[in-house]
Amino acid sequence: MPENTTSAIEARQTGSRVVIAGIVSIVLILAMTAVLLFANLPDASAFNARVEKLFVDNNDLTSQAEVKLLEILGNSTTAFSQTLDSYRFVIFVLLVFATALLIAAVAFLVMLVALNRRMGQIERKGIEVNSLIISRDQKSVYLNNFEFRLTDAAIETLSVLAEARMDDEVLTGAQIEGVISGRDPADCDEAAGATRIKRLRDTLGNQLVSELLVKNIARHGYMLAIDKDVIQMV
Asked: What domain range is 143 assigned to?
């Protein structure tokens, strides 16, 4: 058990380091992209400098049309500068949005991987049941403090399986039917017990719970896939 615990802790630590490294890498890549992009964008004042130089080099332009043309060029530089500033802001917002999306994608991917691993562990090991309390009077089953209301037949079937599990026994369908009906298992039909198991699973409702809680061992029979020490009959 300590080795398994250590292994689980190391796996979580490794996963956390991978997530942090992935997020840092995404931020660094996008930051470098932003720096290169903004560095290669034309300077907003470049057009102003050109027009200013044009004014200086052609200060002998004094006609009304020539002055009007220079005024138009001057106004154009202002519009051009404002347009570049708006482009820079839009690019900045898009980069921030892309960073957030990539980080969210990494986080969801890690969550899915962790969930798949957890489901794989459940499929291999069964449900981790800390307590199974069967109350015949209340027709209820408390599985890890979650209450399930069962029918009389389902309670009887589950009780038989629980008692067999506490005795480390695996029951066939005929044996289950014999214990519940009070007849000799040799006089009972295997299908009758299988039907009781099916009804128990249907009553539990949750497919994952029912399929993993009640195990069907090929050519042997049925049993509860839990530790016998957690079972209580009240």
From this structure: 132-233
How far apart (Å, rounded) are the C-alpha atoms in residues 126 and 225?
6
- Domain match, 196 and 89 both: no
pLDDT tens for 37-57 read 777 766 656 666 666 676 666
Residues 11 and 116 in one domain: yes
Q: Look at the block and give the residue holding tokens 């290169």.
A: 36
Report the alpha-carbon distance of residue 185 to residue 200 in Å, rounded.
20
Residues 223 and 118 grouped into a single domain? no
Cβ atoms of 48 and 77 within 8 Å: the answer is yes
Question: Do 134 and 155 touch, CB atoms closer than 8 A?
Answer: yes
Nearest alpha carbon to residue 172 among 186, 157, 190, 187: 190
Question: What is the reported pTM?
Answer: 0.46
Cα torsion angle, 32, 37, 40, 44, sign: negative
